[in-house]
Design brief:
single chain; 115 residues; mainly alpha; 6 helices
Length: 115
């Protein structure tokens, strides 16, 4: 069930990024910020991303009911490598060596928690 939470969180992030990417925004202009918010509310990708988060949050409550927080919570860090890979593939973001080393450290840390 924890892996479902990780999957839904990662999917939610990707959908939110896809939903907001084509929208215009000028952070110095209040009207632009308000229009951005309205455009987000009308974006099916943003709505779907938020739905993934809500479903993931509900599943997380189930996980917390049956698991120790100190063991379950580190698994949420698995979203980092997933997002790094997906952001490179889907959004053509540059992945640096520093990011790869950081993600490897996270994965090693998680494996230590679960030994």
């Amino acid at each position: 069930m924890i892996l479902a939470v990780v999957f839904l969180s990662s999917l939610g992030q990707v959908l939110l990024k896809m939903g907001v990417s084509p929208l215009s925004l000028d952070l110095r202009n209040l009207n632009s910020i308000l229009i951005f918010g309205l455009d987000c509310a009308k974006s099916y990708l943003v709505i779907l991303g938020l739905f993934c988060y809500a479903l993931g949050a509900f599943l997380w409550l189930l996980v917390l009911k049956v698991s120790d927080l100190g063991v379950a919570y580190p698994m949420i860090s698995l979203t980092y490598p997933i997002i790094l890979i997906l952001s490179h593939i889907l959004f053509h973001e540059v992945v640096t060596l520093r990011q790869v080393i950081g993600v490897l450290a996270i994965v090693i840390g998680i494996s230590l928690v679960y030994r």
